[in-house]
From TrEMBL, chain A:
UniProt entry keywords in alphabetical sequence: Aminoacyl-tRNA synthetase, ATP-binding, Cytoplasm, Ligase, Nucleotide-binding, Protein biosynthesis
GO biological process: arginyl-tRNA aminoacylation; glycyl-tRNA aminoacylation
Zinc in keyword set: no
Subunit structure comment from the entry: Tetramer of two alpha and two beta subunits.
Subcellular location: Cytoplasm
Gene assigned in the entry: glyS
Annotated protein name in UniProt: Glycine--tRNA ligase beta subunit
Database matches in NCBIfam families: glyS
Species: Salimicrobium flavidum
InterPro entries membership: DALR_anticod-bd (IPR008909), Gly-tRNA-synth_bsu (IPR015944), Gly-tRNA-synth_heterodimer (IPR006194)
One term of GO molecular function: glycine-tRNA ligase activity
E.C. number: 6.1.1.14
UniProtKB/TrEMBL annotation, chain B:
Gene3D superfamilies assigned to the protein according to its UniProt record, in alphabetical order: Bira Bifunctional Protein, Domain 2, Class II aaRS and biotin synthetases, domain 2
Alphabetized GO MF terms: ATP binding; catalytic activity, acting on a protein; glycine-tRNA ligase activity; transferase activity
Protein name from the UniProt record: Glycine--tRNA ligase alpha subunit
InterPro entries documented for this protein: aa-tRNA-synth_II/BPL/LPL, Gly-tRNA-synth_heterodimer, Gly-tRNA_ligase_asu
Biological source species: Salimicrobium flavidum
Gene expressing this chain: glyQ
UniProt keywords, alphabetically: Aminoacyl-tRNA synthetase, ATP-binding, Cytoplasm, Ligase, Nucleotide-binding, Protein biosynthesis
Entry's EC annotation: 6.1.1.14
GO terms for cellular component: cytosol
Top-tier EC class: ligase
First-listed, main subcellular location of the protein, grouped into a coarse class: cytoplasm
Length: 693, 294
């Protein structure tokens, strides 16, 4: 027979941000628990509102499945002693299974006979088993838990009622003084306590009490109401999934309403208005033709009675918030950029890295340094320097103090108002780009250089004082910023060797006397940190581990070239025709390790193949480096591959490790020279030849 | 409803729930939580139900009486119920009805907001209560006080009197709120708001304040050597207010800030621990009283 069960945990208001995960857990744990208890079911449905988590189980059998199974015991020679009597092991086994030795029979497994008994366990009544569901309720975990009253249980919020029903019957158990029953509470103000006579009536009974228990139905309800309002008023209300979900989890019975604010607030930067509406009040902002309108849309927990009253109250709250923003915006404009910069001298950036003003000085130095390195125009360089100089002034404005997510953006607005040119102003915002891995890089050169300088200072600085990110610990977001550095260099096609650049920044830090004593450790930490980020990016592009290792042996270098090399090798390692080249290079790299530092002397060449390899190397070398410098990666490898034939000929006809020391060392020196050239492309020995099946 | 009537109504409501009506504590403080009637009494096993109005000073929020929403000093109506009753949310909602707020005509929500005061080593979980989008109450289940586990758990309910009044009286400007009989908040507080702002941001003597902080701190330490919990705690409150004045003046850097907060926290922890020990020495007298009733 098919039965239904219902469990509901009645809680004081759950944090909205926990509800999604709580639903997932409840469903997973319920299914696992049913399976463990041999209760096959047809369907498990989850419900949630701010005041309840519930699960409806349909298609439950009357009792657990019976167990019929074979239990395996000791091997036959252990089960029987020398006289053919049952051993202690056999007696113990059968007893352990609730049987006696008479029940034992032997069966072979892989040629060995083992003792077995047949077991049969009859399933218990479902309604008795369901008492154990308590453990599912207690197994739910939340990011934050609390105690209440005199109770010692830590749970997400106080438990106020419990429903546990099997068909019409209450399944009895108790949690922290709350006994299970068959009554639930409706909406706090519109509903009443109600009896749930049958699990299947849960959703419909609650609806009568102004509770939409199904989370996705509640969400759809809000979405539809938003769409209706949109049509009616001719507005655009952006589909903000995150906000929609949060609002869904804040109400039991949603009713959408709209309100207005004074048009004069529209002079305040839109982002500040939107932050006030969305983050502080959970309103949807309203647009028309991409312009923000002086309206907002909220969602009430209740029906549409007195809705105008609710809208009016919300308008008042928003007015106060927007007045604050307007006040800050106007006050901020009364204080010059220069006096803001003075204030930075009083603010500590990081204890071992000085004040914000000192950070700004470093960023300025690094930005100028980058400008020179990339030989940008003197106008642009002046802009870079100015941008770096004022880059953090907005951090001490009232607007950013109130709306921290507007850093950079307010910098841009105020810089413009204070008469800075567009390039400089834009850089204020762009210095924080890309905001996340993969989001857009700065568009301007000035912004890109400032962003690079800013990030390099943060990363090198933080690692220098011993705060290298470990495991999941990356409080300063260094990984994200390092990815940003690589992304900008690539997106902007900057011809910059990151390996070189990092060394230069490290020297600058050392000159400034910042960081710990162990310069060598700092250096390797910084390089390894960046290498790991580059490796991460390459692997994400499906480049194999061995190829990643091969191209990063000498550091990241010019990242876009390194990346192209990786993709090329990743392709080549599957081509049979490349095997010849791969083997040739591999042999050179292997042998070159034995070289002792002497230089090549062509007068010591004994054989034609040596001379040939030597001249060939000289011939291709120039072309190869030229191509590599110009980023012609495919061509450069083709040029380098010209060495394959003379290399093979060399090894076939020449014995490198000959008796004569001078000749031997000369040959090794030649191989070493060639190896150095090959290494600038990649460590081919790290590349594993893909097995051809 | 004027503010005076609101206060009387809340006092009556919580008095009916068995709360002791206390008066404001006579030392400057930033919040009702810091009164020993909350901070110390919510420690230990003794039951404790109390309600009082607390004038709360936040020097950094001073705006010379010009901002319609921010005040150097506002008023909180503070309630503590230990252990937290099972129907504490309902009791609270009834208090709103007593103030003439019919929940059916509004949108009342409990929105997650966890409270933490690192200076006092205190933390709790709960909500801010929204009335049509306005935060009118902070509702917290204390989990930790002075670094000690709060057991049993107290429910703390803190109403922002001016906020709530601005809604009830439908006023845009806090200074237009009626206290009683046509007397407004502006009539009573405009001048002090202005003068305290001038003092806080312009006239305060930083050196004197730094010296005071150290003096108060030393005094508290000295008193703790003698286990004089309540007087020591008074000096911690003085430290805290002095720190707030310095902070508002912008003379405490980020690093120093951590240092000062750490110093106050250490004192607060010590006081919390000693308070519980001393109550224990006394045999937790209020616990006895409770069982005698039964």
């Amino acid at each position: 027979m098919s039965n239904q069960a219902l469990f509901e945990i009645g809680l004081e208001e759950l944090p909205a941000r926990f509800i999604g995960d709580a639903e997932t857990q409840l469903e997973k744990r319920t299914k696992e628990w049913l399976e463990q208890n041999r209760l096959p079911v047809e369907r498990v449905s989850i419900y949630s509102t701010p005041r309840r988590l519930a699960v409806l189980i349909e298609g439950l059998p009357d009792k657990q499945q019976d167990i019929e199974e074979k239990a395996k015991g000791p091997a036959k020679h252990i089960a029987l002693d020398e006289e053919g009597e049952w051993s202690k092991a056999a007696v113990g086994f059968s007893r352990g299974q609730g049987k006696s030795v008479e029940d034992i029979y032997f069966e072979e497994i892989k040629g060995v006979a083992y003792a077995h008994v047949d077991k049969y366990i009859e399933g218990e009544a479902t309604k008795d088993i369901l008492k154990g569901f308590k453990e599912v309720i207690l197994s739910l975990t939340f990011p934050k838990n609390m105690r209440w009253g005199n109770r010692s249980l830590k749970y997400v919020r106080p438990i106020r009622w419990l429903i546990a029903l099997f068909e019409e019957e209450i399944v009895p158990f108790e949690i922290e003084g709350v006994a299970t029953g068959n009554r639930t509470n409706g909406h706090r103000f519109l509903g009443e306590e109600v009896l749930i006579s049958q699990p299947s009536r849960y959703e419909s009974e609650l609806l009568k009490q102004y509770v939409i228990a199904d989370r996705s139905r509640r969400k759809e309800e809000i979405r539809e109401q938003l769409q209706r309002l949109q049509k009616e008023k001719g507005w655009e209300i952006h589909e903000d999934e995150e906000l929609l979900m949060e609002v869904t989890d804040l109400v039991e019975y949603p009713t959408v309403f709209s309100g207005a604010f004074d048009e004069s607030f529209l002079t305040v930067p839109e982002e500040a208005l939107i932050t006030s509406m969305k983050e502080h009040q959970r309103y949807f902002p309203v647009h028309s033709e991409n312009k923000l309108l002086p309206y907002f849309v909220g969602v009430r927990n209740g029906d549409d009675q007195f809705i105008r009253n609710v809208a009016k109250g919300n308008e008042k709250v928003l007015r106060a918030r927007l007045s604050d923003a307007q006040f800050f915006f106007e006050e901020d404009q009364k204080v010059s950029i220069e006096s803001r910069l003075e204030k930075l001298k009083k603010i500590v950036y990081q204890e071992d890295l000085g004040t914000l003003a000192e950070k700004v000085d470093r960023v300025e130095d690094l930005a100028v340094f980058l400008s020179d390195k990339l030989a940008i125009s003197s106008d642009e360089k002046a802009n870079v320097q100015r941008a770096a100089h004022i880059s953090k002034f907005d951090l001490v404005t009232q607007m950013v103090d109130e709306f921290t997510n507007l850093q950079g953006l307010m910098g841009e607005k105020y810089a413009k108002l204070f008469g800075e040119n567009d390039e400089v102003a834009t850089a204020m915002r762009e210095q924080y780009m890309p905001k996340q891995a993969g989001s857009p890089s700065p568009e301007t050169t000035v912004g890109s250089l400032l962003s690079l300088a800013e990030k390099l200072d943060t990363i090198v600085g933080t690692i220098s004082i011993g705060n290298l990110p470990t495991g999941s610990q990356d409080p300063y977001g260094l990984r994200r910023q390092a990815l940003g550095v690589l992304q900008i260099i690539e997106d902007r096609h900057f011809v910059l060797s990151l390996t070189e650049l990092l060394d230069e920044v490290l020297v600058y830090y050392e000159q400034k006397g910042l960081g710990t004593e162990d310069r060598q450790k700092i250096r390797s930490d910084v390089h390894e940190f960046f290498n790991a980020r580059a490796a991460y990016l390459l692997k994400r592009d499906n480049v194999e581990n061995d190829v990643v290792e091969a191209v990063l042996t000498e550091g990241i270098g010019y990242y876009s070239i390194t990346k192209e090399k990786a993709h090329l090798l990743s392709e080549k390692r599957n081509e049979e025709s490349f095997r010849y080249v791969h083997e040739a290079f591999g042999r050179v790299l292997n042998m070159s390790g034995k070289a002792e530092g002497s230089s090549v002397d062509s007068s010591l060449f004994m054989k034609e193949e040596e001379t040939k390899l030597f001249t060939m190397h000289l011939e291709i070398k120039k072309e190869f480096f030229k191509q590599l410098d110009q980023g012609e990666v495919v061509e450069s490898l083709r040029t380098l591959s010209d060495l394959a034939e003379p290399i093979h000929n060399f090894f076939e006809n020449i014995m490198v490790m000959t008796e004569d020391r001078d000749i031997r060392l000369n040959r090794l020196a030649l191989l070493k020279d060639i190896a150095d050239t090959i290494y600038t492309f990649a460590d081919f020995n790290a590349v594993q030849w893909k097995q051809q099946n | 409803m004027d503010i005076q009537t609101m206060i009387l109504t809340l006092q009556k409501h919580w008095s009916d729930q068995g709360c002791i009506l206390m008066q404001a504590y006579d030392t400057e403080k930033g919040a009702g939580t810091m009164s020993p009637m909350t901070l110390l009494r919510s420690l230990g096993p003794e039951p404790w139900n109390v309600a009082y109005v607390e004038p709360s000073r936040r020097p950094a929020d001073g705006r010379y009486g010009e901002n319609p929403n921010r005040l150097y000093q506002h008023h909180q109506f503070q309630v503590i119920m230990k252990p937290s009753p099972d129907d504490i949310q309902e009791i609270y909602l009834q208090s709103l009805e007593a103030l003439g707020i019919d929940p059916k005509q509004h949108d009342i929500r409990f929105v997650e907001d966890n409270w933490e005061n690192p200076t006092l080593g205190a933390a709790g979980l709960g909500w801010e209560v929204w009335l049509d989008g306005m935060e009118i109450t902070q509702f917290t289940y204390f989990q930790q006080i002075g670094g000690l586990e709060a057991k049993p758990v107290s429910a703390e309910i803190t109403y922002g009197i001016e906020r709530l009044a601005s809604y009830i009286q439908d006023k845009e400007n806090v200074f237009d709120l009626e206290w009683t009989n046509g007397v407004t908040v502006g009539d009573i507080f405009s001048q002090p708001e202005y003068e305290h702002s001038v003092y806080t941001f312009e006239e305060s003597d930083e050196k004197m304040l730094f010296d005071l902080f150290t003096t108060y701190e030393k005094e508290a330490e000295k008193l703790m050597e003698k286990d004089l919990v309540f007087p020591a705690y008074d000096y911690v409150l003085k430290c805290s207010h002095t720190f707030n004045l310095l902070d508002a003046k912008g003379v405490i850097s980020v690093t120093e800030r951590t240092g000062y907060i750490g110093r106050v926290r250490n004192l607060a922890r010590k006081i919390a621990k000693t308070y519980v020990e001393k109550r224990e020495e006394l045999g937790f007298p209020m616990l006895k009283e409770e069982s005698a009733h039964e």
